[in-house]
Amino acid sequence: MMLQFWFFGISIIIHIIFSAYATIVSHDGRAITIDGHRRVLLSGSIHYPRSTPEMWPDLIKKGKEGGLDAIETYVFWNAHEPTRRQYDFSGKLDLIRFLKTIQDEGLYGVLRIGPYACAEWNYGGFPVWLHNMPGMVFRTTNKSFMDEMQNFTTMIVDMVKKEKLFASQGGPIILAQIENEYGNVMGPYGDSGKAYIKWCANMAQSLDVGVPWIMCQQNDAPQPMLNTCNGFYCDNFVPNNPNTPKMWTENWTGWFKQWGGKNPHRTTEDVAFSVARFFQRGGTFNNYYMYHGGTNFDRTAGGPYITTSYDYDAPLDEYGKFKKFLILLTWKNLLGNLNQPKYGHLKQLHDVLHSMERTLTYGNISTIDFGNSASATIYKTEEGSSCFFGNGNENSDAKISFQGESYVIPAWSVTILPDCKNEAYNTAKITTQTSMMVKKPNEAEDTPSTLKWSWRPENVDNFILKGKGESTQTQLFDQKVVTNDQSDYLWYMTTVKFKKRDLFLGKSMSLRVNSTAHVLHAFVNGKHIGNQHAEDGKFNYVFEKDVKFKSGRNVIALLSITVGLANYGIFFESKPAGITGPIFITGRNGDETIVKDLSAHKWSYKTGLNGFENQLFRTESMSKWSVESVPFNRTMTWYKATFKAPLGNDPVVVDLMGLGKGTAWVNGNNIGRYWPAFISSENGCDAKCNYRGAYHAEKCLTNCGEPTQRWIFALYHVPRSFLNAEGDNTLVLFEEMGGNPSLVSFQTTRVGSVCANVYENKIIELSCDRKPISAIKFASFGNPHGNCGSFEKGTCESSNNTVDILTQECVGKEKCSIDVSTKKFGAPDCSGAARKLAVEVIC
Ligand code: GAL
C-alpha cells in the first residue's frame, strides 16, 4: 500500500515538472524550430465538432500512427457563442478536451482561431447575431466587428492559457492562426482591408501566446506573422520574408461536396506527389486539410448547399470506427476507418521525410535540371546527403543518370532517396492496399427488414390558411435578419384581397417570386402550389406558378428554407438569403399584362416550424403519432420509427433513399440535413481517373446521376454515443418535400474487399480490418491490368498457381504479409518489363 502511494506521489511530481517545462517554438527562414531544433513537421486537420468526443482519441491516435506530428483545428465561433455572450463548450464543442486529447497522444497542436474559418462551415463560423448588429461589416476596420472579434479571440486564448496548452506553457500548441485567407479577398476592402490586417496582427501579437502566429494566403502579412500557403500544390510558394519558413497550412486531400454535386476524389499518387515536391523545394511544414473530414451534424454545414457529409476523401474516412476494450474500467477504441491506400501511402512518405529531418532542415541545397520537367534536389550536410528526383511531366517517364547510376522516374512523380543512392519511396508506386468499403444490412436480432413507421403532419394551418405570424413589416427582409439563424425555416405571409369585379380575377393569373431562398415552398389559400431550389449554383431565381385567386381574402404563404449560409467570398456576410423580392401577382388578358407588386405589402413573419418548437424529435416527446395510413409523398410530414442497433462494432449509417429533403434525428440527436432526392447530373464523371496532371475539384469525379448523398452517419452504439446497444433506438425524420420512408434502413459500413497492385521486390500487407480474409477473388503475377474490382490477366503470367499460394498464406487470417518476388510466384517472361502482382481478396 505504502509503495503504491510512493509511486503515485512520484508520478505527480514528474507530471508537475514536465507540464511546467516550456517548449520554445520559434522559426528561422528554413523551418519551425522546437527547443532550438529545426523540424520537418507533418500535420493534419481534424475539426472537433465534426466528430464526437468518443471518436477523438482514436482519430488522433490514427493520425499519430499515420506519421503526423501535429493536429490542426479551427475554432468555430458561431458554435461557441450562438447568442451574444452566451457560450457553449459542451460535448462536441469541448475544445479544451480536444486539445488535451492531442496532448495525451503526445502530438503538437495547431490552433486556427480565425475567428473566421470558412471551412464549409455555416456562415464561415461567424455568428449571425454579429451580422445583425447595427452598422456591421465583417473583416474590415469596423469598430463593432473588431471589438467582437477581439472579445472572442481573447476569450479563446485565455481559456487555452488557463489550461496551459500553449507550448510556451508546456502544452501542445506550437502555432496559432489569426484570420484566414484574407489575402484572397482583400482587394475590394481597399485601404481598410490593409489597415484591418495590421490590426489583426497587432491584436494577435498583444495576446502574448508565446508561439508564432500564422496568417495563411496573406502575402503582405505584417511581421512577425508567418504567411503560409493553401492549395492543391504549394511547391512554388515563396513566403514574404526570408526569415519565414516555407509552410503549407492547407494541402487539400480531396474536396467537399455540395447538394446536387458529385463525389470528388483526389488520387493518393497526386497528394503524395504534391507533398514530396513541396519538401523537394524547401518546404518544412505540411498540414493536410482534411486528415479526417467528418460530418456536418445538425445545421453546421456551410453553403449554400454543403452536404452533411464532410468526408473530403481524407486519409481517415468520415465514419471512423470503434472497437470496444474494457481496460482498467475505461473504454478504449482502437480502430479508425482508414481510407486506403491514401492513409498508408502517406504514412510511408512521412516516415521517409522524418528520417531525413536533419539533412532537409540543415543541409545545403543544390539542384540539377534534367530538362523536360525532371530535376534532382540534393540536400547535403557533413554527415551525408538526401535526394529528391522529381518529374513534373504528366506524360512521359524521365530516365536520368545521377552519380553514375541511372534511374527511371515515372511521369508526375517524385522519388526520394534518403542516401542519394537507393530509392526509398516513389509517390506513384503504391505498396499499400486499397480498401473497398461496403454497406451491410442491419443484422440485429428481431429487426424486421422494413421499419415500422408512425407519422404526424407538421401543423402549418395557422400559416397557410390564416397567414398569421409573429411580427409584421411592410417590407421583405433577408432571412438572416429575421431568424438570427435560429432555424432553417422562415414563413413570409401576406393577404391579398380582390373585389368580385377586380380586373385581375378570371384572367390567367400567376404568382411570381424573385427568390434567393435556398429552397422555397409556396402556398396559396392553404394549397401547396410548388417548391423550387437553386439549380447549377444560381441562388437567385424566379419562382412562377399559375394560381387561381378568389374574390375576397387570399392568403399567400411562402416558406423559405436555408441550406447552410455562405461561408466564403468578398463581403459574403451580405449575400442574400430568403425572399428579398420583388413579388408580383400578374394577370394576363390576351396581350395585356397587369402586374400587382406585393413587395411593400404587409408581410407577416414566423421563424421556425411547430414540430421543431415542440421538439417532436425528442424520444420523450409526448405528442401523438399515428400508425394508420402512413402517407407517402406528403410535404411537411414527420415520421418516426424504432430500431435495434446493428450487431457488432462497425459504424452505422442510415440509408435515406426514397426520401426528398429534410432533417434526421437519432435518439434526439440531430444528425444533419438529408436530400437524397437531389440527383447529380449524368455528365462529368471520370471512371479512369488519371493521377497524372494537376488536380482540380472537377477532376476524377464519381457518382454521376446518383443522389449526392444517400447515407447519413448514425454513429455508434458505444456508451455515451448516439445509439443504445440494448433496447430501442428512435429515428425521427422531418420530410419537407414528400418522400417514401418505406425504403429507409440502417446499415453498417465495413471493408468488403481489399486489393493490391504492386511491383516485384516489395512487401505488401493485406488486412481486412480485424476480420478474417475469406477468399482470394483474383490474383495474377505478371502484367495484369485494371483496377480494384476489375483486375484482368495480362499477356504474361506466372505458371505457378498464384491464387493457391495466396489462399494458403492469407485466407482465414486477419492480415498477411506477402513478399512479391519471383522466388514466391515464379518468373514469367514479361519481355524485360517489371512484373506486378494484382490481388483482390474478399473480407
Ligand atoms: C480554403 C479555406 C478552408 C476551406 C478550403 C476548402 O480556402 O481556408 O477553410 O474552406 O478552402 O475546403
UniProtKB/TrEMBL annotation:
InterPro entries: BetaGal_gal-bd (IPR048913), Galactose-bd-like_sf (IPR008979), GH (IPR017853), GHD (IPR041392), Gly_Hdrlase_35_cat (IPR031330), Glyco_hydro_35_CS (IPR019801), Glycoside_Hdrlase_35 (IPR001944), Lectin_gal-bd_dom (IPR000922). PANTHER family: BETA-GALACTOSIDASE RELATED. It comes from Brassica napus. Keywords: Glycosidase, Hydrolase, Signal. This is Beta-galactosidase. It catalyses: Hydrolysis of terminal non-reducing beta-D-galactose residues in beta-D-galactosides. SUPFAM superfamilies: (Trans)glycosidases, Galactose-binding domain-like. Its EC number is 3.2.1.23. Belongs to the glycosyl hydrolase 35 family. Residues 758-843 form the SUEL-type lectin domain.
